[in-house]
Amino acid sequence: MSSWISRATENRNAQLVTTAVVSGVVVGSAILGFQKARRMYRVENLKASIPDVDGEHHASRLTEYGAASSIHSPSKEDKRSTELAARARKGDYDDDLILEQLARNRVFLTDDGLAKLRSAFIIVVGCGGVGSHATAALARSGCSNLRLIDFDQVTLSSLNRHAVATLADVGTPKVHCLRRRLEQITPWTHFDCRNELFSEASAATQLAPDANGQTPTFVIDAIDNIESKVALLAYCHKNGLPVISSMGAGCKSDPTRLFIGDISASTDDPLSKSTRRRLRALGVKEGIPVVFSTERPGPGKAQLLPLSDAEFKKGDVGELGVLPDFRVRILPVLGTMPAIFGLAVANHVILAISGYPQEYLPSKNRDSMYDGILGTLQGSEGRIAKDLGFNQEGLRIPITKDDVGYLIEEVYNGRSVISGLSTRLALVRWKKPDRESFIDRRTPGQNNTFLKMNDVVCVTKEEAAKHEKEVLRGGKEPGEVWDGKVVESVRQKMEEEGRYERFR
């Protein structure tokens, strides 16, 4: 080994290579050492620049969503407004000035109506485009006790539709943005700001009475997430809390198509349909007023486009959302439409609380029709039972009148899957059942068919008679009686209902 080293050191080329390697190592070590020393120096400088937490410097935590838990440093004007609002809420504000500011509402609603509005406790869930305009209108109209619930922050893209946000508010929680701006307009208003996500688990706390024990006079649903929206409406319906819900303002542009009516009457709106369907599965089919648009999509109109294949190839699409189940596509929104929805919501609440006369669109109220459809389905099942050799006396089917309403309205949109007609409707099995699977044998002594929601389709009475004769009692396949488009449409409807079945 030593002889090899001695021979190598005598070789001039080897000496040059060795020198170069050693020099490189030394220079590299020096550079790395310098960089490490510089990083340490910078870290120490950064630590030294952080003030101690004392009376002058307050530390604050981020929220669980990574949002700032406090608003940006206020300007001198903001400070003056905050101080004025603090004094006004303590009663240091002339009531005559308040009544003067509310004079137009006062003569419209009368003294009694305005007094009811001023003493009401209103909760607004969702403080984006719709919720911010509703909140601003309520505060300007005299509502003096508002609880605002929203987990989100103001973004640059919020400014096309938010009622009061400015560039200075970007990055701040929406609830604090509303409070800060509206205190400059109605300083006597009490704002209870909850920078939180509404959920079924937290509903009891978030919709609880205020600090004085007053239960909510009204709840406004301005949520655009289906899970939270359904949870809020179901909770309010179950607990008797008056609520109004805003349906989808996205992709809408025609203000003349806006309506306020019972949720059972809302049409031509995907968000409304999904909400109705989920609520009906929970046993809530009517009794909730909603603001909705009957405007339909058309050529040249905005629409929610699907994600590109390139986005799917990048990995889990769910990672694109802020929270689980939140949409990951940009919904086209014309800035004026959320404002119109929000003002319509606030208008309804103001009139309802003050006792001013108002009327809803009539609900469909088709219970008698559902009874008839249920009876027709019962008769069809009896005839099939007789053909299969079963006793049809006392035969029952596991489908209720509410189930019939759900299938007719939400799954088949009140139309025959075959002809598209909306009159003389009926429900009928789509495929002929096997004898072994026709009767439900799980409970001895009961005589009922094993019929599932996914087994029936909506058709006219005439189509039902033909289908029963040729398919259910005649032995033909549906594809031999009806064309391929009908068969494919039925397959899609049943597949869609299968996805909703988990909510029942």
TrEMBL record:
Membrane-traversing stretches: 14-34
UniProt-listed GO biological process terms: cyclic threonylcarbamoyladenosine biosynthetic process
Pfam short name (any one): ThiF
One Gene Ontology term of the molecular function aspect: ubiquitin-like modifier activating enzyme activity
Name by which UniProt lists this protein: THIF-type NAD/FAD binding fold domain-containing protein
Keywords, ordered alphabetically: ATP-binding, Ligase, Membrane, Mitochondrion, Mitochondrion outer membrane, Nucleotide-binding, Transmembrane, Transmembrane helix
Lineage of origin: Eukaryota, Fungi, Dikarya, Ascomycota, Pezizomycotina
UniProt cross-references to InterPro entries, sorted A to Z: ThiF/MoeB/HesA, ThiF_NAD_FAD-bd, Ubiquitin-activating_enz
A cellular component annotation (GO) from this entry: mitochondrial outer membrane
Principal cellular location given in the protein's record: mitochondrion
Domain of life: Eukaryota
Subcellular location: Mitochondrion outer membrane
